[in-house]
Amino acid sequence: MVEQSTRATDRPLPLPRANLLHLLEQMVLIRRFEEKTMEMLALNRIRGYCHWNIGEEASVVGAVTALTENDRLITSYRDHGFAIARGTPPETVMAELFGKEGGCAGGRGGSMHMVDIARGYFGGYGIVAGHLPLAAGLALAADYLGEDRAVLCAFGDGATNIGAFHESLNLSKLWHLPVVWLITNNQYGMGTSVHRASAEAELYKRACAYEMYSEQVDGMDVLSVYEATERLLRRAREDREPSLLETLTYRYPGHSYADAGKSYRTKEEIERWHQRDPIRLFQRYLEEHGILNQGEYDLVERRVSQKIEEAVKFAEESPFPSPDTLFKYLYAEEGTK
Amino acid sequence: MAEGTYRQALQQALREELIRDERVFLMGEEIGLFGGSYKITDGLLQEFGEKRVRDTPISEEGFLGAGIGAAMGGLRPVVEIMTINFILIAMDQIVNNAAKIRYMFGGAIGVPMVIRTPGGAGVGLTAQHSQSLEVWFASTPGLIVVAPSTPADAKGLLKASIRSNDPVLFYEHLMLYNDKGEIPDEDYVVPIGKAEIRRPGKDLTMISHSLMTQRSLKAAEELERNHGISAEVVDLRSLRPLDFDTIAASVRKTNHVLCIEEGWLSYGIGAEIAARVADECFDWLDAPVKRIGGAEVPMPYSKPLESAAMPSHERILEAAIRARRGS
Ligand SMILES: Cc1ncc(C[n+]2csc(CCOP(=O)(O)OP(=O)(O)O)c2C)c(N)n1
Ligand SMILES: [Mg+2]
Questions:
Q1: B165·A333 Cβ contact <8 A
Q2: Do the beta carbons of residue A311 and residue B81 sit within 8 Å?
Q3: B2 CB contacts (<8 Å, ≥6 apart)?
Q4: Residue A241, CA distances (Å) to A176, A236, B237 in order
Q5: In a domain, A174, yes or no
Q6: Cβ of residue A158 lying under 6 Å from some atom of ligand 1
Q7: CATH number of the domain that A95 lies in?
Q8: Integer Cα distance of A79 and B247 in angstroms
Q9: Strand locations in B144-211, DSSP E?
Q10: Does A82 reside within a domain?
Q11: Ligand 2 is a single-atom ion; what residues have CB below 5 A from it?
């Protein structure tokens, strides 16, 4: 029931060259995008919270890339990278952060509530584990309607201690729902380490209580994450079997804008995780396999940097929503209060 | 037209909507094999099968949230919460998800679902099983809250709720399930957001919903018979959106107002209506707006204490006379 997979990087090329390069570019895009949001926060272009995926790029990109076009994604508030990985244009993510009409939620959602229904992204949610029951329901709908799709539901290590986690896993197994539960274990819920929060710190083992298959993978290795997610999504789609996947990763910055991330983590620990930077690791892998050289990597950085400049420009130029639209979208029928 | 109970009316609505729309399905604790805690869904599992009538574990947050997700995924779930007292476990799903999803995602997606749940006191179910919490939901933008007081409205409002594109909290009353009334035969809906004048009158407007509307009607008869007061009884039916136009029209006619509710008065439905009447109908008032509601205590067990905690016939009558007198 419980398995630890071997590192995918030890195996022959699992994907065509172009796809491998795409994984890299997506990871770089998310890293640079998040860094830009820090700058924009300092300039007061962005308000409120900002939860970054920096350090988690392999977990995010590996998992999301494994989705088919038909599959659905739903996540926690740490969602900028998930939206971008799913193909939501970075400019609409940035515009959302700026609170602009051109944002993916029209500026109504902000950092924690990215969304892109057309691409099967059912949104980011701000209550820890509050979206897990929704994922069960999305999977139920797919099953009910006989649709060929699975649901990927991403959340943090901290979310596994809430009732909604357990209720959702139970329902999904009981009803054979096509869903993959993805724990992005970045070792901390705000400042509380997994060991200080979970009696069973090997989080993937919790699936045992629900007779559910589960795995733990190296969340710094994009190919391991991709390979496991792809396999588990297929199992969900074809066999109507839910599963739990835990990726072991790390968030390099603080929890959100008001946290430097240093009071509860040692310098040594942070440094140790930096040595396994998911982007560097994958860059080295590609170089070792003769797929990428430094010049090509620089090109990736240049393309990404251009996309991000365009994203900022789009966000700057997009208009703010008019106060006249304050009650728009409250109900299906306009004018209802 | 045929006579039927409030319970039968609800079942008819569910049955007809299950037949009308393949996407409609029911989900809740004990609604299938057991036949429903209050037998609203009795027989529907046998008729429609497990796909359409789904028994759930005792997992309110889980299955109510799954209802929200299913609605986002293209279905029309009707989720039953055994009684409103247990809904608190699922409060986060209702308030933080169902009510907010359309708005916080800029209209990208909505949540067309119904949450059916009964509440109310009066049969000795005590502190944790006797509450009227519908107002908590009525104060939440993004939700629709309806509370029928008659069999015909129970059916028509439930159908309207199932066809609504927004999340509806459908509040039923345990003490109304056996009430009888005429139920139209044809396929009909009662529009959401429209109050109903249950009894016309010229001296006093009595505003209420659910069980308290039935109690108000009884009190109004006695007011007419023994006290020479002609009371107009407004049945809110919808708590959100609130049909203030109907209220205001009645106030302009009677110039006296009594709000009756079973729940606690503080920050309640009567408080909301009194504030709006004071604000928007001040010139039409001949006396202060009066309110009557449940005593602000956890519901006690002992019969005389329970009776003392509820707006009884006698207390409604007395409050109505005072509202008319202005004292
Ligand atoms: C129910 C709830 N309690 C508390 C919070 C405040 N909070 C926001 S994020 C967070 C930590 C969550 O940690 P984890 O699930 O590991 O996700 P991560 O932020 O690490 O991605 C907390 C406690 C919340 N949003 N929701
Ligand atoms: Mg975490």
A1: yes
A2: no
A3: B182, B183, B185
A4: 6, 5, 44
A5: yes
A6: yes
A7: 3.40.50.970
A8: 46
A9: 144-146, 168-173, 180-183, 196-199, 204-208
A10: yes
A11: A 156-157, 186, 189
Please state the pTM of the whole predicted model. 0.96
- Relative to beta strand B290-294, strand B257-264 is parallel
Q: A254 CB under 6 A from ligand 1?
A: no
Report ipTM for this prediction.
0.96
C-alpha closest to that of A14 among A66, A51, A60: A66
Q: How many CB atoms lie within 10 A of CB A322?
A: 9
pLDDT tens by residue, chain B, 327 residues: 899 999 999 999 999 999 999 999 999 999 999 999 999 999 999 999 999 999 999 999 999 999 999 999 999 999 999 999 999 999 999 999 999 999 999 999 999 999 999 999 988 999 999 999 999 999 999 999 999 999 999 999 999 999 999 999 999 999 999 999 999 999 999 999 999 999 999 999 999 999 999 999 999 999 999 999 999 999 999 999 999 999 999 999 999 999 999 999 999 999 999 999 999 999 999 999 999 999 999 999 999 999 999 999 999 999 999 999 997
| Chain A residues inside the 8 Å CB shell of B75 | 140-141, 144-145
Question: Is the residue at A8 inside a domain?
Answer: no
Domains and CATH numbers, chain B: 2-183 (3.40.50.970), 196-325 (3.40.50.920)
Annotated active-site residue B173? The verdict is no
Q: Is A327:A114 a contact under the CB 8 Å cutoff? A: no
CA–CA distance, A291 with B318 (Å, rounded to integer): 87
The residue whose CB lies within 8 Å of the most ligand 1 atoms, and thus the one to mutate among A111, A183, A190, is A190
Domain count of chain A? 1
Neighbouring C-alpha atoms within 13 Å toward the C-beta of B295: 14
Residue-range definition of the domain harbouring residue A291:
17-319
Torsion on CA atoms A6, A10, A14, A20, rounded to nearest 10: 110
CA atoms within 13 A on the CB side of B278: 10
Domain contains A328: no
DSSP tag of B184: -
